[in-house]
Amino acid sequence: MELIRGLHNLRPRHRGCVVSIGNFDGVHRGHQAIVARLREHAATLRLPARVVLFEPQPVEFFRPQASEPRLMRLREKLAALAVLGVDGVLCLRFDRRLADMPREEFVERLLVDGLGVRQVVVGPDFRFGHRRLGDIDYLATAGAAAGFGVEVVPPLLLDGERVSSTAVRQRLAAGDLAGAARLLGRPYTLLGRVSHGDARGRTIGFPTLNLPLHRRAVCLRGVFAVRVAGLGERPLPAVANLGWRPTVNGTYPLLEVHVLDFSGQVYGRQVQVEFVQRLRDERRFDSLDALRRQIDDDVRAARAVFAQSRD
């Protein structure tokens, strides 16, 4: 899958495609329905299927301190979209210039001159342009004049509930991993690169993979039974702490993963952590010895989870 960064990197060969535009945070089952229709149009027209994303997400630009935590970073979105068969992603930097772009210029520069679109597929809440004045009706009118079609994919409902990124966040915040997985169409995962930590886990007998998350907030926190992919031929069972590490006065969210019955140098490796079951809340301990005893209990609890899954 091709990644194009910015309008300035569009080339004549990128003209002629079908496109969807949005945040695609989580790439949940609602997003998957949009991509499925996108690919159907692409097959019919024999054109590439492309997705337009924004970095940062618009709400992060307008309300950086109040925006909801992300489900995915850009790298994770790209991996999920590639699995769905998207041919290319155009990532636009969302800054003041883009925020102030009139809806007419958005259509002309991006869709007509830049991508030469033949079909646009979006969700019902899609808005664009300065002050979000571009809506579905305007897009359809502009498309009719410029020669591209517009399809609005209705919201996906599961048992009467709309599938959305917000609904996934709510499930995760409540520790309902099964509910989140149902909306996502797969278990919730985080992708990260193993970095050097303070080696505190090793000193108390539980070495961990330290995965900085590069985000201000996370959708869930606590201690979990997880599976780790990227260290061997198959995912490995593990126990993980996701949060701020209050016992050692942590100042940013970190994912620490102790892989069961595993040893090896893995610094710099990129791994994917799949959340299987929540074990407990993250909490502060009076001493590292108390923390060690609790981790010992957590490891036993995680082993029990994986033993049950094999039954």
In brief, what are we looking at here?
It contains 10 helices and 14 strands.
Notes on the structure:
- By secondary structure, the protein is of the alpha/beta class.
- It contains ten helices and 14 strands.
- Strands 1-4-3-2-5-6 form a six-stranded parallel beta sheet, sandwiched between helices. It has a six-stranded antiparallel beta sheet with strand order 9-14-11-12-13-10, with helices on one face. It has a two-stranded antiparallel sheet with strand order 7-8.
- α1 (29-45) links the parallel β2 and β3 (49-55).
- The longest helix is centred in the last third of the chain and has 23 residues, at 288-310.
- The protein starts with a strand and ends with a helix.
Largest sheet: 6 strands, parallel
Record the strand order, biggest sheet: 1-4-3-2-5-6
Spans where pLDDT lies below 50 across 5 or more residues = none
- By DSSP, the count of extended strands is 14
Shape: elongated
Give short descriptive properties of this protein.
six-stranded parallel sheet, alpha/beta, 311 residues
